[in-house]
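Hi Y.,

Following your request, here is the sequence exactly as I used it, all 234 residues.
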Amino acid sequence: MTPDRPALSIVLPMLNEAAGIVGCLQALAPLRAAGVEVIVVDGGSTDDSVALAAPLADRVEGAPRGRASQMNAGAAIAHGKALLFLHADTRLPPEADRRVGQAIAAGRQWGRFDVRIEGKSRWLPVVAAMMNWRSRLGGIATGDQAMFVSRDSFHAVGGFPDLPLMEDIALSRRLRDRGRPACLSARVTTSGRRWETQGVWRTILLMWRLRLRYFLGADPRQLAIEYGQFTSKD
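Below is the corresponding structure, written out as tokens. Let me know if you'd prefer a different format.
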């Protein structure tokens, strides 16, 4: 890696992740040692997230709350030839940097990994299989799948739309106009706590309903309130 242009930058949005951010960033230590840039973008945490993240990342920056604005802020200061957007509760597979590099070198402008959902419910593997199948069929990626994109393509489409929810779907639609995603079979592992806390099928039905309403033109902010990501006072 050269100091000003690594092959890959990982952008990680964060909000009140003190309980898990150390483990998340420690898992990225081998990639940092190999030259991958890790940028954490905080959305206004009120716990110790920033202090805990600072020694374990190349940069920790602040941005207005919301994954889209946080990830765009991280991308704006990233130096990598490719960008990978990672949720704080998701772990990458071994050699993720090499896999992304091979996909980009093969001419794919963007892509994502298959996902495995970690948890106790026997339905979580079914949910993951559905997500992976739907993504391959429709050319749409979600944030849980660790989306990656060449730096040039990301900026060419204007980055993530400034939406409080469905920003990953919206970016996928923009990028799909430039080519189908690379659907890597290597699996990221993401936490199933959301599904298990709210109920697996209840969560699935909620997400299907919100996505349908989004495609039909519903206000993304109202959808984010219903999802629990924002309140009407935010």
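The chain has a mean pLDDT of 89.

Thanks again,
Q.
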